[in-house]
């Protein structure tokens, strides 16, 4: 069923200074999908919000008519129509105590005014999208409840007919008992009108319908294991029976590939059944993190998986970090039982792709197509070369709404196998265990100096810095990889004229 929620972004600014209202209005004027409303009197804020139904509220914290934190409290009260609307508070300066109090009262974000227009628009879009998705989920729940109520009402009328049949047998049946049911124009109404002759058929059919519904529900649940419900929603299909070969959606999305490192070594002493049990135990732990971050698992690839995130890089990177934390917890259990810990590599890229149904009429499955999908698979493969847990492309970094929430380390400028153009790759350190993350952050200044010299062709100086990195963190495989390259270049006496700072991989 198509959602009735309007996806237009509506901004309400509450600020007593009209000059601020004018400034923000100009910032948003070029955004065709953003509607701006301004309220200069905080005492009228709730009324204005009720009239314009904003998807995000910007509120000043210093206004003569009302204390700013008090207005935050009003806007966030449970009986207020604005209690769930994202609230970004504005202040003339950074005040940690006031900021903390605003967040305690329920504010979603904090900006020093006037903010940069690019940042302001990004935050408005981010919070509005989250709020619109929240409204859609509420609407879906309401529709589901309405359908349950409709079915309950239908079952109640079936019960009336069934009860009337018993009354006929006892000769106490009163026609008005089924007066409302008899008004129906469907089969149940006909049964009510010709009740005496049809009651046995009604009972038999009711039993058949119950059995059929039970079977249908079980069948739909079984289909959901092969074609997830979120996949159907993404393809804009209500049920599995609506899906056709060739159905697809084409858009910019984030795609993730992940794989267990050294799976052959781990599984070589297992029976086929033990291998199945092991892979399923692992996937059972990490797969929910994809769904909980609004991703869609396109397919399982033995010990790995491919997933897409229709809403972009933020969901994908958050899911990647969460997956690695699940692996860390799983490893603690494995080590306690005497098993080898797992190392999982994750690659994430953002680009345009098509996601849909492929195959033939009698056998089809979901898949994604794009050169960007192939590139992501290559990025995942690079995690084993660099010895990292979560690797992202420069496009992924550019699409993050707030890259500052992560500890990110630039790794390399490289050409992967099968492509001609170089791509910058980065490591998300938040996906590492705390000990490794600490050592990499500690050695990061030397690592960056080493990279600068390496890219400029100062190999001897780069070697010194990479050796410093390894003296701090001997397990830093990336630094070791660079040292191997540098030793090769020095042995080959590579000149600066031949050097462009790009490494070209010949393996997947």
Give the key terms:
Sig_transdc_resp-reg_receiver, adenylate cyclase activity, five-stranded parallel sheet, Nucleotide_cyclase, 18 helices, phosphoprotein, 52% helix, alpha/beta, 14 strands, Alpha-Beta Plaits, Adenylate/guanylate cyclase domain-containing protein, Rossmann fold, 508 residues, nine-stranded mixed sheet
Structural commentary:
One of its GO terms (molecular function) is adenylate cyclase activity. InterPro entries: A/G_cyclase (IPR001054), Adenylyl/Guanylyl_Cyclase_3/4 (IPR050697), CheY-like_superfamily (IPR011006), Nucleotide_cyclase (IPR029787), Sig_transdc_resp-reg_receiver (IPR001789). The chain is an alpha/beta fold. The protein is built from 18 helices and 14 strands. It has 4 domains: 9-115, 3-Layer(aba) Sandwich (Rossmann fold); 142-226, no CATH class; 247-429, Alpha-Beta Plaits, CATH 3.30.70.1230; 433-508. The chain has helices at residues 18-28, 45-52, 68-76, 96-105, 117-169, 179-182, 187-193, 195-226, 229-234, 263-267, 272-292, 313-336, 371-386, 394-399, 434-442, 444-456, 459-472, 477-492; strands at residues 9-14, 34-39, 56-60, 87-91, 109-112, 248-260, 296-301, 304-309, 344-360, 363-369, 390-393, 408-415, 423-428, 503-504. Strands 6, 7, 8, 9, 10, 11, 12, 13 and 14 form a 9-stranded mixed sheet that branches. It has a 5-stranded parallel sheet with strand order 2-1-3-4-5, sandwiched between helices. A hairpin with a 2-residue loop joins β7 and β8. The radius of gyration is 30 Å and the shape is globular. The mean pLDDT is 85.
């Amino acid at each position: 069923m198509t959602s009735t929620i309007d996806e237009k972004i509506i901004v309400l600014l509450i600020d007593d200074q009209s000059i601020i209202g004018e400034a923000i209005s100009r910032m948003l004027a070029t955004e065709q999908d953003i509607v701006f409303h301004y309220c200069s009197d905080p005492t009228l804020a709730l009324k204005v919000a009720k009239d314009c139904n904003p998807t995000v509220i910007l509120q000043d914290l210093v206004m003569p008519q009302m204390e700013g934190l008090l207005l935050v409290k009003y806007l966030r009260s449970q009986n207020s129509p604005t209690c769930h609307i994202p609230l970004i508070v504005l202040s003339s300066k950074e005040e940690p105590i006031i900021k903390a109090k605003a967040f305690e009262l329920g504010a979603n974000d904090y900006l020093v005014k006037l903010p940069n227009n690019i940042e302001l628009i990004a935050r408005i879009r981010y919070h509005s999208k989250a709020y619109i998705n929240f409204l859609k989920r509420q609407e879906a729940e309401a529709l589901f409840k309405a359908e349950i109520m409709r079915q309950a009402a239908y079952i109640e009328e079936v019960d009336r007919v069934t009860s009337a049949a018993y009354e006929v047998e006892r000769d106490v049946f009163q026609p008005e008992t089924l007066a409302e049911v008899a008004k129906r124009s469907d089969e149940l109404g006909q049964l009510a009108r010709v009740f005496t002759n049809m009651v046995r058929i009604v009972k038999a059919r009711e039993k058949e319908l119950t059995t059929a519904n039970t079977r249908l529900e079980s069948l739909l649940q079984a289909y959901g294991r092969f074609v997830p419900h979120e996949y159907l929603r993404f393809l804009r299909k209500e049920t599995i029976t609506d899906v056709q070969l060739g159905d697809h959606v084409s858009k910019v999305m984030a795609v993730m590939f992940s794989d267990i490192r050294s799976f052959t070594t781990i599984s070589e002493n297992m029976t086929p059944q033990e291998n199945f049990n092991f892979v399923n135990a692992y996937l059972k732990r990490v797969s929910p993190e994809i769904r909980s971050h609004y991703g869609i698992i396109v397919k399982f690839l033995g010990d790995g998986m491919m997933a897409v995130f229709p809403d972009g890089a933020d969901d994908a990177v958050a899911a990647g970090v969460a997956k690695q934390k699940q692996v860390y917890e799983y490893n603690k259990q494995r080590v306690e039982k005497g098993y080898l810990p797992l190392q999982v590599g994750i690659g994430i890229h953002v680009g345009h792709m098509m996601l849909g149904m492929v195959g033939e009429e009698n056998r089809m499955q979901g898949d994604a197509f794009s050169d960007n999908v192939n590139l992501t698979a290559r990025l995942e493969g690079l995690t084993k070369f660099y010895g990292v847990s979560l690797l992202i492309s420069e496009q992924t970094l550019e699409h993050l709404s707030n890259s500052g929430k992560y500890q990110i380390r630039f790794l390399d400028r490289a050409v992967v196998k099968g492509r001609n153009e170089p791509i910058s790759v980065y490591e998300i350190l938040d996906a590492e265990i705390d000990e490794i993350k600490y050592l990499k952050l500690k050695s990061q200044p030397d690592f960056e100096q080493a990279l600068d010299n390496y890219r400029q062709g100062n190999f001897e100086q780069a070697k010194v810095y990479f050796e410093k990195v390894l003296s701090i963190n001997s397990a830093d495989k990336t630094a070791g990889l660079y040292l191997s390259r540098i030793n090769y270049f020095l042995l080959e006496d590579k000149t600066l004229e031949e050097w462009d700072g790009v490494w070209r991989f010949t393996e997947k």
